[in-house]
Write a structure and sequence with these properties.
The chain is an alpha/beta fold. It is built from 12 helices and 8 strands. Helix 1 links the parallel strand 3 and strand 4. It is globular and about 50 Å long. The two termini are 24 Å apart.
Amino acid sequence: MSTRAGREFAAADGVTLVYDDSGPSGGLPPVVLVHGHPFNRSMWRPQAAALVAAGHRVITADLRGYGDSGVVPGRTLFLDFADDIAALLDHLGIGKAVIGGLSMGGQIAMEFHRSYPDRVAALVLADTSPVAETEDGKAFRNRLADRLLAEGMDGYAREVIDRMMAPYNVTALPDVAAQVLEMMRTTAPEGAAAALRGRAERPDYRESLAGAVVPVLIVVGADDGYTPVADAQAMHGLIPDAELVVVEGAGHLPNLERPEAFNDALIGFLDSP
């Protein structure tokens, strides 16, 4: 296994972004995995290991404001995140890639598909929704941004752990729960708040998804309380020939709660003719 890990590059506005790049170059299109909120690229470690073992090149980056990347206050639009992914692909000399994401990361993947359709070889959308934010949702995200700036991440992390993971897995998988809590608690409040304000302004992706001409995999945890199976089924209905996989025994983070099932679905999709 070749590993090009923990590298840095500067986005167009000078923000430093940190990424991991593992697996063989050449051959199959690389797989870019976009983390959710308020996490970082380490959430994809089980998938990166399995994909590399299966012969795929995998790129995971900390979004601006998250993980080891530069903290950006104010408001970060999803187009800003998508532009960063395009800049990273340019930096690596990659034309097309499989773009996958979970939750907010899935919405950023949809934004990338909307803005850079010719650079998408396939889409992987996990535990996410293409619908634009409601007025109530906009107010909630902006209030939450204010709260994180005022209070920090710890109280929020403790409140949402039972929704980020299925409650039974918080108990049954203490090491995973500890990892999820650590990612949330160590996220910079300024970066998380900026993303929340941008997320409140996201467009509706249903039209662009309905026009997708690339393979699409939709994955959802059977017990996801944020984006339930019904949301995944509705998205599946929009996209001709999309594949839908429901991961049993998982909530909003099936890639961490049931990594073997998630990896089987992902690799099966990528390796299908």
